[in-house]
Amino acid sequence: MDVPVSKKNPDGVTTRHGHCANNPSHKDFIHSDELNEIAKEHFTELKGPPKADDLGFKNKGNRYDEFIRGWTQFWNDTLNPKDRLDPNLVKALIATESGFNPNPKVGAVKARGLMQVTDSTRKILANPKGELHDHLVEIDQKDITDPNLNIAAGTRWLFRKKDLAGVRLKRTATWDEAVAEYKSYLKDMIKDPKYLPKPMAEFRKYYKQLSE
User: Fold this and answer.
1) % of the chain at pLDDT higher than 90
2) Distance CA 174, CA 46 (A)
3) Which of 23, 125, 141, 194 could form a disulfide with 137 if both were Cys (CB 3.0 to 4.6 A apart)?
4) What's the average model confidence in pLDDT over 91-111?
5) Does residue 72 fall inside a structural domain?
6) Which residues pair with 80 in a beta bridge?
7) Section 98-117 average pLDDT
8) What is the CATH number of the domain that holds 101?
């Protein structure tokens, strides 16, 4: 896919299998205006999941399916996991994170948007000297509640959380375990296998409904 011309990429950047060809940090880096252009140019034509089910969130539950479908495919193709991420799982996660409200009340952890991306997460995603080895995402705080950008960042972070869950478990994590790590429940769930927080139970209910 070619990353189109943008404010921070005036010449355009050709990508091969998701890898940017001319980045001075030697890490693949994508900015908010590029994320918007990718969605605009490529996502409308995509087909497939997530399932068109509003999950009881009337007038909201299906509103962001195009972005969910597009960014799940984008990161699957870019990161090339053995176990590909299911768009239905991302939709179920959004249902439990924000109820499909792009501007939920900001709490103590300063999580924002549909996928409740925190300020610390946003900074990690954009730090070439941080914990991400590659495929960084830079979005300003003022733009993180934009549905397209929030889903792009949140889905990228979910892939990272799957890696971190694997480290915690000392084996390859499942996507369900990645969601538990994303929600900060995995540590306690490992300690007590009978412990099932309500948000995880709701996530599993929604995911099952979308998968049927």
Assistant:
1) 81
2) 26
3) 125
4) 88
5) yes
6) none
7) 87
8) 1.10.530
